[in-house]
Amino acid sequence: MDRWAFTPKSAAVRTRERNGSGTRIAVHLAMNELSLRTGLLALIPVVAAFVACGGNDATTPPSTNDGGTVDAGTDGSDVPDGGGCGSDVPASPGMLVTDRGPVRGALEAGAYAYRNIPFAAPPVGSLRWKPPAPAACWKEPRDGVAWGPMCPQSDETGTAPVTGSEDCLQLNVFAPADKPGPLPIMLWIHGGGNLAGSATSQVGTLRTYDAGKLAAKEGVIVVTTNYRLGALGFLAHPALAAEDANRSEGNYALLDTIAALKWVKANAAAMGGDPAKVTIFGESAGAVNVCTLVASPLAKGLFAGAIMQSGGCVGKTRSEAEDLGAKVVAAAKCDAAADVLGCMRALSAEAVTSAFPIKIDVAGAVTGYAAVDDGYALVGKPLDAIKAGTHAKVPMIVGSNSEETSRSVPLAPAATAAQYEAAVRTLFPTATVADAVLAQYPVADYASPWATYVALTTDAKFGCTARKTLRALRQTSTPAFRYYFSHALENSALLGRFGAFHGADVLYLFDHLNVSGYTPGAGDTAVASTFMHRWAAFAKNPQDPSGGDVPAWPAYDAATDPYLQIDSTVTTGTALRKPQCDFWEALLP
To answer: Of 190, 391, 487, 502, which is the active-site residue?
Structure first.
């Protein structure tokens, strides 16, 4: 798609568009397994902090711990059976004694940070494309101050050199220093299109998911975890199903997050946490993976609540996943091998990851990796499992941002109405569908052709899919709450034009407002407080995420579509973008 001139809209017009006729624009679709990292990052340092799901900043060389080159790790041949290891090191402030061994952390801004803790064995050698195996034991304190590696990955274009380590199944723990337990535990699942990102994601010197402030301010324990990415985490192939006792394939990343949840349960008491109060939360692909956990029979009982930020409930059938897997195997030149898996396992992690590049496009059609309906780890696609009522019926928060796609089309698709129409017809090549979309989204209703395209893609890929997820949850009497984030940065004229773009919410949730010299306004600070307090309140009591704040957060019902709008002032509303979402629901049932 061509990059046409960018026509920014004023804040006043942006507000009018969001509010519409008594409704508010929301955004979210089952297709957003996506991250945001355009060439704009190199031009606008502050923007990089908002890329909630990317890997290392393109302008910052990866540190040794982050894996500047691909590292295969150890072969995993000495993996123990998973029993308790035991240690002579006593627990103390700054010393976390896990079921595999002790970890020495550091006190940072009111929270103890314990980083780079293995929750599974390195998935290398014979363990590549296998369920995660137990981590090895250690007796002496392990350094938990330095950050660990990211899993092998390229960038959102799929063309950058592959970096990271295959020995990447580690997690990080952030525990308040002065809060008596047992405390609620929140497990964060990062985004990145299931192709990029990590629990150690870095922009300049900022670690995007450093959760110390959230833990210290709100009295919760936050755990952030890695999981295998790309073909290493999602490859499906008949040979993989044949060698597995459960005929499971393509769900290695899902099994990684389940292993991380089991680690959290096993070590909750050691962290000062409550194993009965575990909440999973994630953004973008992380939200997609949260929904997959909600749908997976293997994850039931491991969490008490779930939060989906800008992500939908999507998955692949076995045949869809195997079709993609066949392309990967062919691109790796292993399709004609007598032993396909032997050939694939003999390749470097870099060769596997780069064999079949996939591009992430927040505003475009979605292709790529997602969990697989293999009849074992996932039975039915996630949304179908929810509709069937076979999912974990835990309370959920589901929401999206008002301008999700704005930064993915900073110069496009339309400087003129004609260019906008051409872009829509490219995105929807069937003439009757394109005509219907153009009729639903006339340029006259928005500030510019560009703003029209942002609204269209934001509704289709994010906001209206959130409604679809919420309605499915309520059909099976699952408690649910909806939010809509609409705050634009107050003190950045350039970034403020993009509104509440994809990933912007993560900056507030982890309280990283001072990144790259940005000076937050009073409204920015208020939004950060709202995100942190309401999310933590949900972890403490998933039946009522209001946390005593006003206004109370209305429980979701399909008849009125109530939601909490998070802006500098918190309000409530109903019927969020109803005409637009009715349109998309009819077009994409």
So the answer is: 502
- pLDDT 10s digits, 476-521: 999 999 999 999 999 988 788 899 999 999 999 999 988 778 899 9
The domain defined by 11-73+92-415+455-587 folds into Rossmann fold (3.40.50)
Amino acid symbol at 331 = A
**Whole-prediction pTM:** 0.87
User: Which one of the listed residues 403, 404, 421, 490 is annotated catalytic?
Assistant: 404
Catalytic residue among 165, 284, 296, 492: 284
Q: Look at 74-78, 175-179, 438-442 and tell me which has the smallest mean pLDDT.
A: 74-78
Q: What is the pLDDT of residue 306?
A: 99
Residues in Cβ contact with 204 at an 8 Å cutoff, skipping those fewer than 6 apart: 45, 48, 57, 59, 60, 515, 516
Task: Evaluate if residue 78 carries a pLDDT over 80.
Answer: no
What pLDDT does 87 receive? 81
38: amino acid identity, one letter:
T
pLDDT at 45: 33
3-state secondary structure of 165: strand
Neighbouring residues of 16: CB distance < 8 A, sequence distance ≥ 6:
none
In contact, 543 and 479? CB cutoff 8 Å: yes
Amino acid in the structure at residue 169: L
> What is the rounded CA–CA span in Å between residue 284 and residue 524?
21
Residue 502 catalytic? yes
Q: Per the structure block, which two tokens stand in for 227? A: 């999981």
Instruction: Decide: 493 and 37 in contact? Cβ < 8 Å.
Output: no
Residue type, 144: G
pLDDT at 289 over 50: yes
φ/ψ of 305, rounded to 5, equals -160, 160
Q: What residue ranges do the domains of the chain occupy?
A: 11-73+92-415+455-587
Helices 578-587 & 449-461 angle (0-180, nearest 10):
60
Q: Residue 262: pLDDT above 70?
A: yes
- Whether 354 is a known active-site residue: answer no
